[in-house]
Amino acid sequence: MTGISLDNTFTISKDAVFRDLDGEAVILDLQSGTYFGLNAVGAHIWQLMERHGALRPVFDDLCREYDAPPAVLEQDLIALVSRLATARLGEVR
Fold first, then answer.
1. Domain boundaries, the chain
2. pTM exceeding 0.85
3. CATH 1.10.10 at 10-88, yes or no
């Protein structure tokens, strides 16, 4: 998926079930039965997207929490959102 920016929102699919497993996470798509694994940072981003929906506040939180260049954080966030949307675990708007 292309064209995703911090001005988008990510709406989590009603068929996506998230489970935290000691910092890492697994998401189950109930419709397809497919599992999607996330490392600790990915799990945290998922939780931020649950809270905010809009990607800009997620990015702002990441910038406050992680000692990484904002351009890298933005690129990683957009890449994860793209992968999640491709896996049909949510919708970018």
1. 10-88
2. yes
3. yes
